[in-house]
Amino acid sequence: MPRKDFRIVLTGGPGGGKTTAVDLYRREIGDKVVVVPESATLLYSGGFPRSVRSEVKKVAQKAIYQIQVCLEDAQAVEYEHRLLLCDRGTIDGAAYWPGEPADFFDALGTTFEKELARYDAVLFFETAAVGGISIEGGNPIRIESLELAIELNQKLRALWSQHSNFIFIEHDKSFLKKVYNGLFELQKVVGAHLSAKAVIQDE
User: Which of 18, 25, 94, 155 is positioned for an S-S bond with 101, CB 3.0–4.6 A?
Assistant: First the structure.
């Protein structure tokens, strides 16, 4: 059965500002949206080990994927009349997978195309690392170096940019300006969807 909900994924390299943007937008728009939290943060903050071993990384990405799917589906049912704002999406794991992206989808028994179809729009927040700005920000879960953050940013962009409704939020030396730009684009996507939905309901 086709999905009834509308899903927007906010993604990008580490330290891009997506989590800040999604939290601010949720506070602003209220009960029209619900946030699907970042599954990796939930997993690692709960005690799951972070390791340099490839096999552990693979197990972690499998767990993150399953948590992400279950969170999205649960929120879609619990808040059936709201838009879903997803802090990262199921495709992100392919960039963190120690190997080729295709191996990630094979290991999870899914396809790249199927995962892209889970989302109606993608807002990609470019990492601040491209500007040489620290991405640490007091988050103990974040352990990436600037070099790794840039590498992950490139991998993630290569994957997500294949979505038909891909929106790129460029790095800016002003974090506030960048977040504002992201919120502006997010509001355009949400506004367009709500307007289209209203027209359908009036017919």
Answer: 94
